Structure formats: C-alpha cells, structure tokens
Amino acid sequence: IVMVSGHLDSWDVGQGAMDDGGGVFISWEALSLIKDLGLRPKRTLRLVLWTGEEQGGIGAKQYYQLHKENISNFDIVMESDEGTFKPSGLGFTGNAKARDIVKEIMTLLQPINATDVYDNADGTDIELWMRDGVPGASLHNDINKYFWFHHSQGDTMTVQDPNQMNLCAAVWTVVSYVIADMEEMLPR
C-alpha cells in the first residue's frame, strides 16, 4: 500500500482551505491523475483524508489501530500538512537505501525544480507508521506565507494558487505512482 493523505483541519476559524484542504486536494488529485492517465501500478494506492488531527490525532490513531496488523503491506505513508505553495521536494524518513531510491525518483521532478529530499518527514497523521519503520514522506514547499493564514479567518480558497497546487499535485502523483509501480517495496 502506498498511502497519500491530508487532513480536514478547519476546527476553529476560517475554512481550512490551505491548512489542510490543500493537502486533501493534492492527495485526491494525485490518484485522479493516475486514473485519468490509465496507469495501473503494481501496488495499491490508498487515499486517506484524516480527521481529528487537532484533537490529538484521534483519526490517525484509530486508523493505525485498525490497520497496524498489516503494517508489512505499507510501502510508504505520505502526508501533506504545510499548505500547497510552490513545492521544493519531500521530507523523508527511512533508511539510507530507501532515501537513495527516493532521491532518484525526485530527479524526475527536475522540470518543475522540486527535487530536494530533506531529513525527516513531518506529519501527525503518519508518525505512528514511521515510528514502526514504515518509510514516510511529507511535502516541502515555500511556507513563507503559511502562518499568515494558518488557523485564521483568512484561510479561504482565495489563498490557494491553482498553479502552485498543480505543482504540488505533480510531486504527489510522481512519487506515489513510481513507488507503487516499483518491482520491490522500499527497503526498511
């Protein structure tokens, strides 16, 4: 299973369009693009739209409890939770061999200049999986304006730039599809 995810996070003020509606959108769009292109990877792509992240990650904890017995089937867990501004690459948590594979995959994103692989994936909703050895990835993007809107009444759809969101969706699509279509799972 290659899991792509974002969470529905609008719990206080605003609409939650950027945090984390953008992560939900690019995760949904990645699978839509793969389907629209008629691609059928060797492994399952799974979209998870988390809830309850701000209330202690209760949605992620419940999902983990329901699926941890199949943890060996999870190839990578991916979460976007820092907006969907211009992407630069991925944060990655995994061993050195898996990191080398991810670095090679990221070279495919040279045309959009989103090739960097940073230390450590971030994500409340995927941390239990990573703690137990499943490789994890988080979207890295230009967050200079992130806290202008984060949990504010300004977090509306007008914050979203369709071109930047498309670039984020491209990163999510390429990474999830290539990993799902590899002969072997990422090394642990």
TrEMBL record:
The Peptidase M28 domain is annotated at: 2-172
GO-annotated molecular function? carboxypeptidase activity; metal ion binding; metallodipeptidase activity
Q: What GO CC terms are in its UniProt record?
A: endoplasmic reticulum; extracellular space; Golgi apparatus; lysosome
Please give the superkingdom of this protein's source: Eukaryota
Q: Where are the transmembrane segments?
A: none
Any one GO biological process: peptide catabolic process
Q: Where in the cell is it found?
A: Endoplasmic reticulum; Golgi apparatus; Lysosome; Secreted
Key words of the record? Carboxypeptidase, Endoplasmic reticulum, Glycoprotein, Golgi apparatus, Hydrolase, Lysosome, Metal-binding, Metalloprotease, Protease, Secreted, Signal, Zinc, Zymogen
InterPro entries membership: CPQ, Peptidase_M28
Q: How does it assemble?
A: Homodimer. The monomeric form is inactive while the homodimer is active.
The family annotation for this protein states: Belongs to the peptidase M28 family.
What is this protein's name? Carboxypeptidase Q
User: What organism is this sequence from?
Assistant: Serilophus lunatus
Q: Which gene encodes it?
A: Cpq
